[in-house]
Design brief:
127 residues; 31% helix; two-stranded antiparallel ribbon; mainly alpha; globular; 4 helices
């Protein structure tokens, strides 16, 4: 069983309030979407982006080398790259509408074993 916890900073979604008193950004750079890095207002699509980066890191052991994550990223199993590419799209409107939709998409993509044998899609495990 894998449990994921968020140890990020609690903050306002207002763009002007995402800096500390010293002017530093109050977010984790590798997981931040382009709109947040540009100082624009963020919403649920920012969470979709961060979840995709986290899923990439959990699957491969490293952060993505580029954003958006390429749909053909060879370090990802099966067609997971297609899901993560959509989830890390530059424009928030091009991403999944929420983390639930992204998770459902990721769990329905077939994968292959190391020998190329098709494997069934993931299945949800209740916690």
């Amino acid at each position: 069983m894998v449990l994921i916890g968020d140890f990020g900073l609690a903050r306002s979604l207002a763009a002007e309030e995402t800096r500390t008193a010293t002017g530093r950004w109050a977010f984790s750079q590798p997981y931040a979407p382009p709109e947040q890095c540009a100082g624009r207002t963020v919403g649920p699509p920012a969470d979709v982006h961060a979840l995709a980066v986290t899923l990439h890191q959990l699957t491969t052991g490293h952060l993505p080398r580029e954003i958006p994550i390429p749909a053909t990223d060879p370090s990802l199993p099966g067609l997971l790259g297609v899901v993560l590419a959509k989830a890390t799209a530059w424009q928030p409107a091009d991403r999944y509408p929420g983390c639930g939709a992204q998770t459902s998409a990721a769990m329905t993509w077939p994968t292959t074993a190391g020998d190329g044998t098709p494997q069934p899609p993931c299945r949800a495990v209740g916690i």
